[in-house]
Amino acid sequence: MVDAGLRLRFNGEVPIDCQWPRWQCARAQDPLPPADALPSPVGDAWLQVRGHDLWLHSPGTVARALTAGGEPGHGYGVLPDFALRGIPRRQGRRPKRPFAVAWSPYVRYVAGIRYDERALLDYPYLESTPADSARPRVHAVKLGVLGDAQQVRDSLYVVDTRSGQQHDIALPEGWNTLSEAGVLGWEGGRLYAVIAHFGTPRRLRLVEIEAGSGAVRTVLEEASDTRLQLNVYSYNRPAVAILPGQDTAVCCAS
User: Of the residues 9, 50, 113, 147, which has the fewest C-beta atoms closer than 10 A?
Assistant: First the structure.
């Protein structure tokens, strides 16, 4: 989004920017972000993962670390092993784009989910017929299974891209984020996410986070003794909309 409306960027041999609704198109002057980058909504900056932290890039400036404190099994923007995409990522078959990260609409903040897999045990996966060998190959990934004392833990974080101020937001004991939901929307300097408790009854909680302070407020909580999620299937997009400028959330839990 830009002040003049919506800007579209088309990839090809020559990058082209078009502004809608006027449909004024011209050759893009800014370089295209690399394939493993997460561009900002305005297109003037992008995020990449280096090591276990997020780095902020923009044309004509030196890249800088946006987060601090990332480590193996507990990084920022890092695809976790339990997503079962860690193997193709290690093999270089998937771009290492920042995972579970969202920009605020006007690029001031970056927020996301941070996964802690440090206490998980290794789970072996067998690649029976590797492309470059006749011998099977074993891949070890971090994965919690039913009965394990330690499971993946997660938390939320928000970073001010101007000041570099970082807030790591721990969840209440027994609560987890919903990976399929992530950051649902923004209203000025506030962001909205859903956390879940899978005990009995099941509970979903819509929370509001002040990006500048990291303060958390419960907006709405629902409970059910049977089934409770944000759409018919967990892989569907959440049936939740944050209406900017109206202090209103439209949601439907099933």
Answer: 147
User: What integer pLDDT is reported at residue 89 of this predicted model?
Assistant: 78
Residue among 37, 22, 7, 165 nearest 101 (CA) = 37
- Give the per-residue pLDDT at 1: 45
Paired with 3 in beta bridges are: none
Three-state DSSP class for 190? strand
CB-CB contact of 185 with 242 (8 Å): yes
> 88 to each of 79, 94, 119, 127, 139, how far by Cα in Å?
11, 6, 23, 11, 11
- The C-alpha torsion from 182 through 184 and 186 to 190, rounded to 10°, is -60
- Is the pLDDT at 132 greater than 90? The verdict is no
CB neighbour list of residue 143: distance below 8 Å, 6 or more residues apart? 81, 82, 84, 120, 121, 122, 123
